[in-house]
Amino acid sequence: xxxxxxxxxxxxxxxxxxxxxxxxxxxxxxxxxxxxxxxxxxxxxxxxxxxxxxxxxxxxxxxxxx
Length: 66
Fold this sequence. Notes:
Elements: H1 3-17, H2 22-49, H3 54-65
């Protein structure tokens, strides 16, 4: 099962039990940000290795967020 599915199951279980579910949501947000940051720096590293303009990489990444 993917992490998203685990977060959903844990969140629903905590809601049913009347427990605080915010920790699950914060963990999901943190994981999404970590994935974004790792992917972003991987692209920068690859651009540096291939001597590609980093400005181009950043522009593409920012457009994909919109």
